[in-house]
Fold:
Amino acid sequence: MIMKKNVLIFVSVLLLLPVFLNAQQANTLYYMDRVFQSQTVNISEIPKNRIQVGGLIVPLFGQLPPAFYFNYGNNSFNYNHILHFGEGEKKDSLVLDLPLLMKKAKRNTCIRGEFRIDYFNLSIRTKKNAVITVNLSDRFMYGTTIPKSLFDFALNGNRDYMLEGKSHDISRLSFGATAFHELGIGFTSEIREKFSVGGRMKLLFGMLDMSTKIGSLELSTDPDMYFITASADMQIRKSTSLFDYDGEGFSFEDISTLTNDLAAFGNVGLAFDLGASYKITDKLAVSLSVTDLGFINWLQNSQVASAKGEYTFEGIELGFLPNDEGKLSYGIDTARYNAGHIMDTLVDLFDMDIRDKSYMTMLPSNIFVGATYQLLPKLGFGFLYRGEIYKKTYNQAITLSVNSNITHWLSLHGSWSLINNTALNFGAGLSARLGFITWFIVTDDVVGLIFPQKAKTINMRMGCTLTFGHEKKVSKTATRL
Structure:
């Protein structure tokens, strides 16, 4: 019973944490050429409007709707693969389906998330089709990779491995949560009539970071004493004022101290977006884009805990603290106590060397390869390949899209994507211009927004921009140049 409770807590944390922390999966957005935000995934895109201004700081129009983006992705399982209504006598009750979890878990389960707020966007296109862009944004990115052997260890125990004299190799285990300010300045130019290139330099100012750097990590069990031995070469790193290690143990500050992190500008980084588009014929065009090639150097409130060697694990004791009425409860104080106790135990277990020192993290980077075919003046088709590089993993997605600039003020987009090992991803996008106001909304999986408990991908992007110098007549759809 106790083991099932611990497993439930373990699974719940893995499932729920990314939802609230919400990597870039803006596949449908890639061909929305009337929207400024399409340049965030392909800087070589030449905007249709001469001037575009948007973001939260734009009075009134910047909040209708607010310019934001969120994404959650899981390449192995969804919520209903873990918790779902039972059958027969349990049809009205939620059941924990651990066998189904093990069946759905991939060799490496990758969970990704991003939440982005755009405060200011500006795009200016000259008569010679040179484009200058400026953006100011806040971004929160989350990612964790969980080897299937860790699920096997948590759910089925280690008996089979112990009898065979094998160890659980969980070296691909990783975790990272990063928040930063981004100031981007981009330039795009049409070098020739059929060829355009673009680049964006982004100054990054890290707010907070918690991440791991694991070289090797294996768990094995002594067949006589049944103690678990960990063989590790890893680092756990943090840059936040929320908690600190003072040499004796971890101390946690009130969550209000996060305001200090949000105003931090001492963790400096640099990143680049690069892109190129080429029009092969009047109907066929191709493009290549790379985003978020960069790093952040963490200097403020930064600590690195290092472990290298073999360590014996005998268990972690958790507890409950009394509330104001003297009754045991699980509240914020208990959570803080247990978190500190777990971290102290891990420090003692791995005999970690904890030092105040700076460190560097790399951003998750994306590669986009696209092609469009203009079947009719108002109807085009698109193909897009996206690859994401994050720590030791490489995730891929393919999208087919239908794009139509129906009138000079309305465009519609539909897509089908193979994302996170599932083909049931049907996206949609819309941009509409009323006078000098352009409003847009886009998602890669409409069903995921309606039934999130059955989805592996949940994302949405929306915003409102002021546009000037737009085309007076209907343009061809999704032609890059």
